[in-house]
Every structure is written in C-alpha cells, then in structure tokens.
Amino acid sequence: MTESQLNGRSRSRVVHGPPALGIDVGGTGVKAAVVDTNSGELLSNRIRLKTPVPATPQAVAQTTREIVDRLAAEGPLPADLPVGCGLPGVVKEGRVLTVANIDQGWLAVSAEEVLGDALGRRVIAINDADAAGIAEMRLGAGRDRPGTVILLTIGTGIGSAVFRDGVLLPNTEFGHLEMDGYAAETEWSGVARDRRGLKWKEWAAGFNGYLARVESYLWPDLLILSGGVSKSLVKFEAYLETRAPVVPAHFLNTAGIVGAALWATGVGSLTGQQVRDVLSPS
Ligand code: BGC
Q1: Atom of ligand 1 nearest to the CA of 185
Q2: What's the pTM value of the predicted model, to 2 decimals?
Q3: Which of 19, 54, 75, 156 has the maximal Cβ count within 10 Å?
Q4: CA 250 to CA 46: how far, in whole Å?
Q5: Distance from Cα 207 to the centre of ligand 1, integer Å
C-alpha cells in the first residue's frame, strides 16, 4: 500500500514499512487498526466496538467484519493486506484451545477459519498477550532487551508473554496461576479491580503478591505491563515491589493490535529461530 492508497491516513509523509491489519479481540472490546510494521505506528484510526455478549465465534466474527468495513470506508484495504488477530486464549495452529473470558463456543474452533470467512481474507491468529509481547520486544519497551522479559497484559483477564533472549515461549497463561484458591486474574485483573471497587493502592498490594509469584517462578530481568491498566501505571507504580524493573508497554493498550499485525507479516507457525528473526530482523 502506498501513501496515496492510504488516502491521507499516514500522519507522517513517509510510509516506512509494509502495512498490516492488526485485530485484538478482548473480553470487553474488539479493536483493530492498520499498522506500519516497521514502526508500529497506526496508519488508520483505531476502531473499537464492544465485544458482543455472548462472544460466540459467529458474533465476534460479525463484529470484526463491521470494524474492518469501517476501516475500509476510511480508505482502501488491499486484498493482500496481511491480517493478524489476537485472542484471549491459548491459540495453537489457529485454533482456540482455552476459553476463560470469551464464549465457550470458541473451544477447539479455528479462529483463522471463522474470522477468515467473515472477512474474506487470510487471517493469522495468536494469543493476545503473545501478540502484545511481540510488539514490545520488536518495537517497544523490550527492544534489544536480552535475558528473560515478561509482558503482562492486564485488562479483563491477565495475559502473559515470556521471552528468553527475544525468543517467545507461547501460550504461557500466567494469569491463571492459582492464588488463594482462585485463578489470579479473577482477583487481580483490571476488570476485577473495578468489580471489587479497589483503590489503586489496595489493588497494587494484592497485585504485588501475584508479581512475587511470577518472579519466584521465572526470575525475569524486565516486566512490561500492557492492557487497560498500563495507562494508569503512574497511579500505582509507587506501590509496586518487584525485583525486576517494571515499565509500561510503549504501545500501552494498542500493543495487542500492533503485535497481531507484526505476527501476520512474520506469518505461520514459526520455529524459535524464525521468531527471533521476526523480533530482531537484521
Ligand atoms: C486468557 C489468556 C489471555 C488473557 C488476557 C486470559 O483469561 O486465558 O489467554 O491472554 O486472559 O486477555
């Protein structure tokens, strides 16, 4: 897609890299934008619609279709535009294998098929936290950071992405660590904070317990926070107690969109070396 094809979408004069469409299906909202895959810059508006209730595959596919139609109304989306989609569950070979914050109907369903059919395009699916992690490792807060880096996305649930020297260990699901008899995310996600009416200080005190657990298992060198809560880091960072430094995601709540777009251009099921190449192209 050239700048003229983008119809004035680009905020800068030069389009630096190949564009791709990133979609982020969350428990609360479905969001998408066209992304410059070299810079992570959004080349279109970010369109967000509420996640349908119930969030069945067909309903989510319909919402996604509506969003993509709106983007297409802003300017043409070429037929060969790579499309990546992050989903809130374990995703293997395009199939959703766990369903905590999305309708049970997704279990074992190929997101790539359902969304691909709805959009009439090839769609590459990935876990939403892994997508956000890829965006941050390649272009954001984790760029050029060796060692163990963990991104936690805190919104409706808690998602995790674990990298060792830039290589992703996919589908880690550390939001489901058991704490006090519950999956950690049911007590310490952003939505759980709202539901329980916790002040930032109270929430951070409990979240510290969760971070301590994650740190005791994995000893990260850097923790990156993304998702709805990351834009409020200034309100609670003073209360956090961790061994590793904690930083907000560079792309904040759009990391999932950016990473899904990057994943689509990296394409397919990658080996560790290939993932490394996607994260740190020479
Ligand atoms: C899901 C994860 C997801 C996280 C954030 C959890 O409930 O199990 O796969 O990454 O929510 O959306």
Answers
A1: 7
A2: 0.91
A3: 19
A4: 16
A5: 16
